[in-house]
Specification:
Length: 141
């Protein structure tokens, strides 16, 4: 398996795992909020779980763009987050998380906030890793 495929697989696993973790926490919050009476019918939970996995793919697959050295970072961010947020919005509408104009605005605001917080955390982590590697390289000289 070549390096690009490994990086893509790694990104997909992390993004789906993170998406399902966030979904699980939101489910717990709703269950607690509704006093344990939160229930879904008509395979809605299954649809939501599959939707959560698709959202993970929507952010994980385009993250491979960061391996392209010829594009400037703002363009990479725009491509990655643009595709991810678009997939997130479409899936949210399809599974019923967003249903009308009011929930659309609220949903987009929440989705963008969470997406960029997660992106920012990953960016900080990888910059820290790069700094550590550069420091080790400098020490070896």
């Amino acid at each position: 398996m070549n390096r690009t495929a490994k990086n893509l697989f790694h990104s997909i696993v992390i993004s789906i795992g993170l998406s399902l973790s966030i979904f699980s926490l939101v489910c717990v919050a709703f269950d607690v909020t509704y006093g344990g009476t939160f229930s879904l019918e008509g395979y809605r939970m299954t649809k939501m779980i599959i939707g959560s996995m698709i959202i993970g793919l929507g952010y994980g697959v385009p993250s491979i763009i960061y391996n392209n050295d010829s594009l400037p970072m703002p363009i990479k961010i725009l491509i990655h987050m643009g595709i991810g947020c678009m997939v997130n919005t479409l899936v949210s509408y399809a599974v019923g998380w967003i249903s009308g104009p009011r929930t659309l605005v609220q949903g987009l605001a929440i989705q963008l906030t969470v997406a960029f917080i997660i992106w920012f955390c990953f960016m900080r982590f990888y910059r820290s890793e790069a700094r550590k590697m550069n420091d080790k390289i400098q020490q070896m000289k």
